[in-house]
């Protein structure tokens, strides 16, 4: 059964996590959900005759403004789960960097969608999470304050994308309306 939890519930769970890393089984339900989200956003659709796969992230990016916001919001879920699994600071920073590069690069009209299709930030972040899961020895988890800062930074990123999307859409409407 797919868990129907909102982003705020996920943030609350990330903030209330234990300070020690969780040992995550490869078939853990949350890890399966992260794999599904990553696959849908980055590799859902095979391109016939090639080895290339396209995800929903660059397709969402074709929607002016709102598509980038929705794609980034879905990508944040992977980082929040990574924090819940107790990934170390360095890895969480790498994941946020991937997401920021994806969001900024993807915001450029047309070229950004090509960037989204090739950068595949969610697949990169999944690989970082999978490497953590595969590590047999315990790793010091990021402390709670750091996780709060990461979550706040991601929320600011989403708000920024929303503001830029709103400004862009209002400019388009003003331009069309004359």
What is the residue-averaged pLDDT?
Answer: 83
Share of helix among residues? 55-70%
Radius of gyration: 17 Å
SSE class = mainly alpha
Ranges where pLDDT stays below 50 over 5 or more residues in a row are: none
**How are helices and strands ordered from N to C?**
HHEEHHHHHH
Label the overall shape.
globular
Q: How many strand units?
A: 2
Adjacency order of strands in the biggest sheet: 1-2
In DSSP terms, counting alpha (H) and pi (I) runs of 4 or more, how many helices? 8
Distance between the termini: 50 Å
Instruction: List the domain count as a whole number.
Output: 1
Major beta-sheet overview: 2 strands, antiparallel
Strand content: under 5%
């Amino acid at each position: 059964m797919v868990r129907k939890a909102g982003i705020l519930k996920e943030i609350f769970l990330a903030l209330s996590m234990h300070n020690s890393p969780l040992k995550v089984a490869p078939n853990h339900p949350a890890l399966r959900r992260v794999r599904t989200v990553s696959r849908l956003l980055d590799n859902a659709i095979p391109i016939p005759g090639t080895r290339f796969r396209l995800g929903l992230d660059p397709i969402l990016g074709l929607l002016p403004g709102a598509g980038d916001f929705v794609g980034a919001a879905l990508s944040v879920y992977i980082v929040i789960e990574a924090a819940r699994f107790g990934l170390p600071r360095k890895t969480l920073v790498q994941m946020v960097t991937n997401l920021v590069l994806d969001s900024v690069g993807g915001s450029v009209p047309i070229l950004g969608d090509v960037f989204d299709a090739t950068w595949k930030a969610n697949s990169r972040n999944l690989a970082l999470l999978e490497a953590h899961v595969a590590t047999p020895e315990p790793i010091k988890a990021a402390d709670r304050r750091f996780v709060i800062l990461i979550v706040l930074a991601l929320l600011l990123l989403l708000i920024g994308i929303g503001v830029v999307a709103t400004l862009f859409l209002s400019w388009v409407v003003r331009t069309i309306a004359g």
